[in-house]
């Protein structure tokens, strides 16, 4: 794999809509996997409750215990809540869109930082305009890629401060309105929750939640998920990669990323069944079996940099306002 000094530019359409059409034609029974999973709300309640419970347990403990609890438990719970927010963004819990949005705001509580509404807004555009630099917030900024490049210390800092780097991308996506009433609601709810935890449990509890949030998407093996999904990590220009390791059991199958991009209307619990139904479409793709291995590969392999992403300038003559729903395969099914 050659060392890159710029992104990989593609004139081809993103691969998922094409594969969706082929799978639906060959395996029409896949339609039966599409639907809602309201029981996901039970998982959200359990995870939020567990974060409150551990916060209570560490309220009077030494800081090393707070950090250890955040690294070995809080990071996994908070990461799972990110997956829950992701499910809500695709409206995979309830038929009512507002119910999904409120569920996402509830799942967001232990993160301290308000992110449920902005995630929904930008993530749906990531599906609609994958690889379009002006619309896909998942792509790093050009200055970001140049700054980090392929240096070990740069990649350590990138993972350590990943939430900050991701936040800087908002200014690049000028066609997407950042602030609205729902974002204000998200912020107010987070402030009220954080204040309540601080008042009734203490500062250590708030610190535990915030540190857990930082580990869950940063300098932690879980942080390899952001590399796994779309960075070119093999000697191929495959655009999206799945992860089939054991941590899918506590990450609600979020590793099934090719499957999810092909069928974003299939809830997390049925993604493995999609793979089993159409193995010739997924078993032939490169995939990862360990986030931990990828975590260290990303840090130490100079051939892997932030430039290892496919970008495209052609948006397929689709305007931003033309995409009103997250489930792109719906038009292919009808």
Give the low-confidence spans: 317-332
Assembly level: single chain
Query: Could you give a short account of the major beta sheet?
Result: 2 strands, parallel
Helix content: 40-55%
In what order do the strands lie side by side in the largest sheet?
Answer: 1-4
| Series of H and E elements | EHHHHHHHHHHHEHHHEHEH
Described by the principal axes of the CA atoms, the overall outline is: globular
Keywords:
single chain, two-stranded parallel ribbon, mainly alpha, 334 residues, 4 strands, disordered C terminus, 2 domains, two-stranded parallel sheet
Explain what you see:
This protein is mostly helical and 334 residues long. It folds into 2 domains: 1-33 and 218-313 and 327-334, no CATH class; 36-137 and 173-216, no CATH class. Helix content is 53%, strand content 2%. The protein has 16 helices and 4 strands. The chain has helices spanning 15-26, 40-57, 63-89, 97-108, 116-128, 142-148, 152-160, 162-168, 181-200, 203-216, 224-230, 257-262, 271-277, 279-282, 291-300, 330-333, and strands at 8-9, 242-243, 287-288, 310-311. Strands 1-4 form a two-stranded parallel sheet. Helix 9 (181-200) packs across helix 10. The chain starts with 7 loop residues before the first strand and ends with a helix. The relative contact order is 0.19.
């Amino acid at each position: 794999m050659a060392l890159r000094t710029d992104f990989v530019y593609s004139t081809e359409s993103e691969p998922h809509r094409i594969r969706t059409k082929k799978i639906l034609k060959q395996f029409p029974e896949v339609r039966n996997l599409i639907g809602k999973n309201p029981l996901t709300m039970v998982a959200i309640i359990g995870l939020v409750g567990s974060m409150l419970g551990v916060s209570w347990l560490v309220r009077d403990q030494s800081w090393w215990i707070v950090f250890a609890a955040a690294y070995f438990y809080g990071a996994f719970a908070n990461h799972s809540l990110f997956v829950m927010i992701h499910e809500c963004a695709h409206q995979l819990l309830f038929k009512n869109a507002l119910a999904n949005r409120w569920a996402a705001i509830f799942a967001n509580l232990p993160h301290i930082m308000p992110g449920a509404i902005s995630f929904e807004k930008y993530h749906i555009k990531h599906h609609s305009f994958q690889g379009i630099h002006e619309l896909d917030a998942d792509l790093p900024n050009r200055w970001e890629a140049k700054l980090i490049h392929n240096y070990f210390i740069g990649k350590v800092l990138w993972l350590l401060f990943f939430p900050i780097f991701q936040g800087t991308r908002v200014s690049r996506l000028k066609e997407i309105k950042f602030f609205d009433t729902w974002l204000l609601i998200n912020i107010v709810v987070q402030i009220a929750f954080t204040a309540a935890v601080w008042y009734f449990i203490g500062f250590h509890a708030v610190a535990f939640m915030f540190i857990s949030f930082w580990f869950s998407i940063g300098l932690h093996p879980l942080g390899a998920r952001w590399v796994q999904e779309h960075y070119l990590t093999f000697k191929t220009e495959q655009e999206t990669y799945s992860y089939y390791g054991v941590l899918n059991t506590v990450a609600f199958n979020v590793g099934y990323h090719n499957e999810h991009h092909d069928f974003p209307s299939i809830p997390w619990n049925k993604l493995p069944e999609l793979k089993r139904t159409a193995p010739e479409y997924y078993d032939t793709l490169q995939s990862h079996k360990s986030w931990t291995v990828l975590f260290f590969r990303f840090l130490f392999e100079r051939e892997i940099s932030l430039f290892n992403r496919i970008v495209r300038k052609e948006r397929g003559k689709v305007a931003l306002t033309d995409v009103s729903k997250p489930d792109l395969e719906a038009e292919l099914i009808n």
